[in-house]
Amino acid sequence: KLSVMDDAVGTVVDALKTRGMWDDTLLIFMSDNGALATQSGSNWPLRGIAATLFEGATRVPAFIHGSMLAQTGYTSNELWHMVDLHETLLSIAGANSERGIDGIDMWKTFSMGKPSPRNEFVYNIDDFEPSPGAAI
Question: Which PANTHER family does this one have (predicted)?
């Protein structure tokens, strides 16, 4: 149930506020994939379900909250990939990653609403179950 997730996130937020940590927290919340039809899920109006190459499997809602965001209260449809979180969080912390990491720093996109530096990403490279096929 969605209410269970809502309650769990609320508990974490309340604990951060109680401990005086909320103003220094960057909260990122997202799904890892689209809904499954076998679980009565729907990704409408997007085509596809989890374990497919369609947008319904990979384009999911997310939100970011924190006092360090320069622009708030807007909806972004910019392209980014889960692997970008690693580079972005390291950048926010003032650290550098090892060379050759697949992610891109998306902090200006997330915090200021700037265009994404990403213009493509790999959906899948494996050709076996549960998600056969490959796409860029």
Answer: ARYLSULFATASE (PTHR10342), RE14504P (PTHR10342:SF273)
Give pLDDT tens digits for 81-90.
888 999 999 9
Three state DSSP letters for 55-110: HHHHCCCEEEECCCCCCCCCCCCCCCCCCHHHHHHHHHCCCCCCCCCCCCCCHHHH
The first and second tokens of residue 132, run together, are: 């056969």
Mean pLDDT confidence for 118-129: 78
pTM of the model: 0.80
Question: Where are the domains positioned within the chain?
Answer: 1-65, 69-129
Decide if 43 contacts 34 (C-beta within 8 A). Answer: yes
Mean pLDDT, range 111-133, rounded to an integer: 81
Length of the chain: 136
Count of beta carbons in the 10 Å neighbourhood of residue 77: 6
Residues ≥6 apart with Cβ < 8 Å to 96:
90
> What tokens were used for 59?
């384009």
